[in-house]
Amino acid sequence: MKVGQKCRVCDVSLPADYEQRLAELGVMPGAEVSLVQVAPLGDPIAIECQGRRMGMRRCDATGITVEGE
After folding, report:
1. DSSP-derived secondary structure letter, 29
2. Which of 4, 41, 60, 67 is deepest in the core (most CB within 10 A)?
């Protein structure tokens, strides 16, 4: 994804506790997410979902499959 790009979540494949936490924040299949910011060295990143901004490590973000709009 590029900064400012919006995508729809297709699948989340992460450890159960982390997947549950993301679901509580709205990051689940069907949700729209956007990439807000990338740290200068590329890690971590900030995403926005349902008006909430959250930071996550890039290695964790690779467990989220999205399709572009």
Report:
1. T
2. 60
CA distances, 29 to each of 7, 10, 34, 41, 55 (Å)? 11, 5, 14, 29, 19
The per-residue pLDDT for range 6-30, each reduced to its tens digit, is: 999 999 999 999 999 999 999 999 9
pLDDT tens-digit map of 28-54: 999 999 999 999 998 999 999 989 999
Angle at 40 between CA 12 and CA 64, to 5 degrees: 5
What percent helix, strand, coil does the chain show, rounded to 5? 20, 40, 40
Q: Which CATH superfamily is 6-68 part of?
A: Ferrous iron transport protein A (FeoA) (2.30.30.90)
